[in-house]
Every structure is written in structure tokens, then in C-alpha cells.
Amino acid sequence: MDTVLKRITGAAVAGASIMSASAAFAGEITIWCWDPNFNVAIMKEAGEIYSKTHPDTTFNVVDFAKLDVEQKLQTGLASGTTNALPDIVLIEDYGAQKYLQSFPGSFAPMDDVVDYSGFAPYKVELMTLDGKVYGMPFDSGVTGLYYRSDYLEEAGFTAADMEGITWDRFIEIGKQVEEKTGHKMTSIDLNDGGMTRIMMQSAGEWYFDENGDLDVVDNQALKAALETQAKMAKADILYPATGWSNYVNAFTSGNTASVITGVWITGTIKAQEAQSGKWRVAPIPSLDGVEGASHASNLGGSSWYVLSSSDVKDEAIDFLNEIYAKDVDFYQKILTERGAVGSLLAAREGPAYQEADPFFGGEEVWQKFSDWLNEIPPVDYGIFTNELDTAVTANLRSLVDGKPIDEVLKAIEQQAKYQIQ
């Protein structure tokens, strides 16, 4: 266990100040999360800021692999041995409802303390159950269309041509880009459900309806998402990619003209210094002919949750509220140092979000993403997103090979029912 912030005590702290509001708490907060260069580092920074006004509060930020966090949390909650659980835990947004619904009463509601109106609505929706809001919204996976302006210009397209387009138009542009430059338009790993998620949520739909029941066969957004990916494959505008490394290499090596994914990919793109000034960002394309289709969506993201069993529950909630719900400067710092786009809407008014980025031709890239963040349609991720992803990816290839879409949707539904029964 990594004790990152030492207890600050001694004669330097006067008795009167100890009793003040800023130092009303005295305890150790244990936090489980993953990724030492992102979540762990950011939480350590948050703890350091909080300790300046709460010197008797210490933090143990424990770095596990993501799978280990999930397994340890699942085991502890299922067995009832909550004394082995942390005070705060990071949960991926797609899994939030699974924990909230499977283990009622295990997480502390925060809506009596936190003003959730200041956050992106879609983040609040995913942590709401039976009218109560659990969790502290953290990073967003707001999506964007990153593209190589040099390739697009060579093919005869301007920045304006990439704004507000549909997926059908994206495919047509892709055909011309390959014809005139020799580069594929983009890359999609058809064995990964990420693109399906992006497209579905952009239309305000998910694998389940408002009652939590499967919504597959008659789901127009899902149907359009699958058909669109099949169209791209058949139009031969996709660079083949299987697995994460192949996917990333497709755009970092210059083989493709664009990448459509979450904002967290920005650091990977910018790591290619030789490509500085050649990249731009636009909103993602919208689904053709689907009611409610938009140019905003999400892929990934996580949030912080307080365990009801925590001996320092109130202190943990106060800490999250003070830093993650109020401290705009904190969000400027983690954006600059870690590339983290938070869910607090007020953060976008800060200087870091409004700074022009020469790598992207002087565009205010972070400002764009923060604006799109507020436009992401809220959806109910339910408790079986991963199982549905498996069913979708298992059947998507058959659509590309010519199987009728209605038969593909029925096959997905049948497999999903088997997996979640």
C-alpha cells in the first residue's frame, strides 16, 4: 500500500485551527484505482490539495491493475467482508450500474452534498439509481474526429468540409482521400465494440430500453451503427486493425487519414512530434436517418465512488466534493499535466481549456472537446454492456460478409439472452 501523503501534526498547528471548519476531519482515506500515470497521479494531486486545508487528513492511494480493482471489489461486496474494502474506489462508467444494482446499499449517495447540476448530464445519469445519485463524475471519454489536414487538403477538402457531416458523407470523403492520396480514411477493429458504442450513444440509444430490457432487434441506432461499419468495410476505406497496437499504429504511422475515438487518445497522437501542425479535430459524424442523431458521444471514462461501509465516509465525500466538484484550478492542472478532460462544466472556462495548440494548427482543441462534452446524450448503460459487446462483435463480421441486417440483429439478441440469463 502506497502512503502518499504523510500526516501533518505538531505544535505548528494551533488548537484553535484544529477545531476550525477547514480541519474538522482527521482520518486516513484509502483509495483504489488503476493507471499510475493517470488516475493514480491525479488522485495523489487531489489529496495534496485537500491536505493544505485539512492537514489531519491523510491518503493511501493504492495502485492496482484495473482487473484487480474490479475483482477485489466484487469479491469484497459479494462476501460481505467490507472491512477489506477501500473508502473510495474508481469504477469504469460502463460498470457503474452493475455494481449499484447488484449491491444495493453498498455505495454512499452524494446528492445531499454534491451539486450535480454543474456536471455533464450524461455522467450524472449513469450513476443515478432510483432517484439517488452515487459517485463523483471524473474523466470523460468525449469523442472527436481527429484527422490529418495535410491528407485531406491533398484530396481537395477543407476544414469546413469536415464539420457537421454524416457517416455516409464521411465514407464518400474517405473514398476520395484514398483515390488521391493512397491513404485509408480510418481504422476500426471490428472485434472491438467501441465504434458501435460511439455511434449508438450519439443517437441517445443503448443496448437496453428505459426499463433495462434488451433493445436489439428494433433498435434503430444499433442497426444504423452496424450497417455503417459494414458500409465502411465494403467501401474499402478501412485500414485493417486487430488489437490495440495495430489500431494505434494505423494512425501514428501515418497510414490513415483520421481516427474517431475518445479524447484520451490526444496524448498518443501528440507523441508523434513529426506530425505537429498536421492534425485537426472536428465533431464526429452523425448517423444517417436516425431520430435524435447528434455529433457528440462518449467512449470510456470513470468516476469515483464512496463505500457505505467506510469509517470515514463523510470525510471521503467532503474531499471529493471540495476538489472534484468545486476546484476549477485543479482541472486546469490535470488537463495540462495529464491530458484529463474532467466532467465539471465550469472547468472549461479556465485558461488551459482555451489555450491554442500548435500541434493542431492553433486550434483550441480542449475547448472544442469541453463544448461537445455538454452535448453527449445521456443513456442508461445497464448492467450487461460487456456481454452485449461480445454478442455484437461476434456477429458484425457476418453483416460485412452479406448476411441481412435483421438476421444479424436477431442473432445478436439470441446470443445476448444466452449470455445474461
UniProtKB/TrEMBL annotation:
Its localization reads: Periplasm
Tree of life domain: Bacteria
Alphabetical keyword list: Periplasm, Signal
Q: Does this entry carry the keyword Cell inner membrane?
A: no
Q: Where are the transmembrane segments?
A: none
Q: Where is the signal peptide?
A: 1-26
Q: Which InterPro entries match?
A: Bact_solute-bd_prot1, SBP
Question: Keyword Signal on this protein?
Answer: yes
> Can you list the GO cellular component terms from the UniProt entry?
periplasmic space
User: Which SUPFAM superfamilies does UniProt cross-reference here?
Assistant: Periplasmic binding protein-like II
Similarity remark: Belongs to the bacterial solute-binding protein 1 family.
**Designated name of the protein:** Lactose/L-arabinose transport system substrate-binding protein
